[in-house]
Specification:
Layout (H helix, E strand, L loop, with lengths): L3 E4 L2 E4 L2 E2 H8 L3 E5 H14 L5 E6 L6 H9 L3 E4 L2 H9 L7 E3 L6 H9 L4 E4 L2 H13 L4 E8 L21 E2 L3 H8 L5 E7 L10 H21 L3 E3 L17 H8 L6 H12 L5 E4 L3 H4 L3 E12 L4 E5 L8 H5 L5 E3 L7 E7 L8 E9 L6 E4 L20 E6 L2 E6 L4 H4 L7 H4 L8 H4 L1
Parallel strand pairs: 4-20, 5-6, 5-13, 6-7, 7-8, 8-9, 9-10, 9-11, 11-12, 12-13, 15-17
Antiparallel strand pairs: 1-2, 2-3, 4-14, 14-15, 14-19, 16-19, 17-18, 20-21
The structure holds ligand LLP.
Length: 445
């Protein structure tokens, strides 16, 4: 469910018409619904109420400070993957003691800051990392809470670039090695073995891969709990969302009709997994990113040109792969709808950005309503892994971001000023002495 729907001809986010925002703040423009974020968090929270749990929102999916603050106020913890993300969480008013720190490449300074801020747990991905954390904790005269990330070697049935729980992947420690690693880690004086963690992949749309992984790992967790007094088991994130017909999923009737079909809902997730997790008698952590933020955001873009080539109908828009890279990187599907609903004819269209790469495209030959220059389109389901993956490629400024709450809308990230893009760049001293030549002598002579 989400809070984007047509009222009459206009697409709204909660109580705000999106075309008003597009005109006021310009495009490309990310818009997030606070109610959707809240609703998704609470749906999951309620579904797993049968076990002691902590939801740690995956900051990497959407790290806007207002998004983080919305979740912090609901009592969410955070799954972080860098020192920068920890600082953001703290800036947003999140509690470091509800933070888990993942990632295969934690640097010494990141470990030190996380220890000083007393995070809940490091989710450790290798033996050298355990030793490094132990060494830094000893220097700071602290005891570091750690969980090892187990790689259960379970295929998640998702895109290969977002599969993380097989032995082809760089993540975690192989299932068979875990007990030996805990035995060695238990001898490191400045570590406290607090839990075990796994994360098998992202955009997983059925419970089965989670079910298989949990069944495989639960006996191991029990053994480790009995031996080392673990306090938690984290099943990671990865719950998939609806991308196809994303707009329809804002409609309650549609949502009801799919409950029984093959769509992963918090209820289904909980109904199948809680009976496996309850007997552990441990605190269960979850690290959802996309489930909470994915359908809580859209990217609004303006049609600059309609270019017909005989073969193709290109809608050239002002958003590009630097704003939303998922289609280019994963061939991901994002539903595309006009902000002003159009009835009537559709045309097979390619929605493409202005960047000089053929991969800079949001869809191919998709039947879309006929739109023209100046019309606005919304790329749906862009709240997760959208703005966070944006870049300045082609010296394009980062888009502005808006948070909507009922009838209120606030800018929660200014559009980047173009000059800020090169603000940190310097001219090398030896290049300053000469005036740039006005002519290219060899070309013209
Ligand atoms: N926990 C860990 C350790 C993770 O690595 C991730 C995501 C999550 C939790 C949250 O996963 P989620 O619930 O959002 O699926 N850029 C890709 C997705 C990369 C996911 C990376 N790790 C995309 O746009 O599909």
């Amino acid at each position: 469910m989400h809070d984007f729907r047509y009222v009459g001809k206009k697409l709204y986010c909660e109580g705000v018409a999106l075309d008003t925002l597009a005109r006021k703040f310009g495009t490309p423009l990310y818009v997030y619904s606070q109610h959707t974020l809240t609703d998704h968090f609470q749906k999951l929270d309620r579904a797993v109420a049968g076990v002691e749990h902590l939801i740690c929102f995956a900051v990497k999916s959407n790290s806007n400070r207002s998004v983080l603050r919305t979740l912090a106020l609901l009592g969410s913890g955070f799954d972080i993957v860098s020192g920068g993300e920890l600082q953001r969480v703290i800036e947003a008013g999140g509690d470091p003691q509800r933070c888990v720190f993942a990632g295969v490449g934690k640097t010494e300074s990141e470990i030190e800051i996380a220890l000083r801020k007393a995070i809940y747990s490091f989710n450790v991905e290798s033996e050298p990392e355990l030793e490094r954390i132990n060494r830094i904790a000893a220097r700071l005269k602290k005891i570091a809470p750690v969980a090892v990330r187990v790689n259960p070697d379970i295929a998640a049935g998702t895109h290969k670039k977002i599969t993380t729980g097989t032995y082809e992947n760089k993540f975690g420690i192989p299932f068979e090695n875990i007990e030996g690693v805990y035995a060695r880690a238990s001898r490191l004086k400045n570590l406290r073995l607090r839990g075990l963690q796994m994360h098998i992949g992202s955009q997983i749309t059925t419970v089965d891969p989670f079910d298989r992984a949990v069944r495989k790992v639960v006996p191991l967790v029990l053994r480790l709990k009995n031996k080392y007094g673990l306090e938690f088991f984290s099943i990671g994130g990865g719950s998939g969302i609806v991308y196809q017909h994303a707009l329809a999923s804002g409609d309650a009737a549609w949502w009801k009709s799919v409950q029984s079909n093959n769509i992963l809902t918090p209820r289904k997730y909980a109904a199948q997994l809680l009976p496996l997790l309850q007997p552990l008698g441990l605190r269960i952590l979850m690290e959802p990113g996309r489930f909470i933020s994915g359908n809580a955001g859209v990217l609004i873009t303006r049609v600059e040109y309609v270019k017909r080539t005989g073969r193709k109908n290109f809608l050239i828009v002002d958003a590009a792969m630097n704003d939303l890279i998922r289609p280019a990187l994963y061939e991901a599907y994002h539903e595309i709808v006009p902000l002003l609903r159009k009835n009537g004819a559709r045309a097979e269209s390619d929605v493409v950005g202005p960047i000089c790469e053929s991969g800079d495209s949001f869809c191919h030959d998709r039947p879309l309503p006929k739109v023209g220059e100046g019309d606005y389109l919304a790329l749906m389901s862009a709240g997760a892994y959208g703005s966070v993956m944006a870049s300045n490629y082609n010296t394009r400024a980062l888009a502005a971001e808006i948070l909507v709450n009922g009838r209120q809308a606030a800018i929660v990230r200014d559009r980047q000023a173009v000059k800020k893009i090169w603000a940190g760049e310097k001219t090398a001293p030896w290049l300053k002495q000469h005036r740039a030549s006005r002519h290219q002598s060899s070309v013209t002579s």
